[in-house]
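input
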Amino acid sequence: MEIYERLHCHRWGLCLYERSTHMLKKTITYTDYNDNERTEDFYFNLSKAEVTEMELSTTGGLAEMIQKIVTTQDGPKLVKIFKDLVLAAYGEKSPDGRRFIKTEENREAFSQTEAYSELFMELATNAEAASAFVNGIMPKNFDESKETMIAAV
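output
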């Protein structure tokens, strides 16, 4: 049985939940294209391997690059990074819970929903929500693993 801790809810019907493995569960209420109101759970996670790849493939590391973009207030680059992070973290849990399935097909399908639009607008307009999202998708104990990895290089 999985235990989720409710972190906070926003007035738009978005609730942020966290699981001990740092898989983020977002409950999003939105209106679909048939004008039906829906409330669904969506899952987001970045594995240590995925974050390490992002860190090593970005000059100075991902965190430093984001900080530079924030400091220079480069809105278009920041929006692109958030879109890429949301879609990179999105996936569907396998029924047995052993895998977190991420395919281009399911990412594209998610990006075409109003749920994605609601989430994206929240992250783009609320710095606290954006920070909570990024922290929620990061792997548990990643900073310790990162230090070990850097020391080995």
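quick obs: The longest helix spans residues 75-89.
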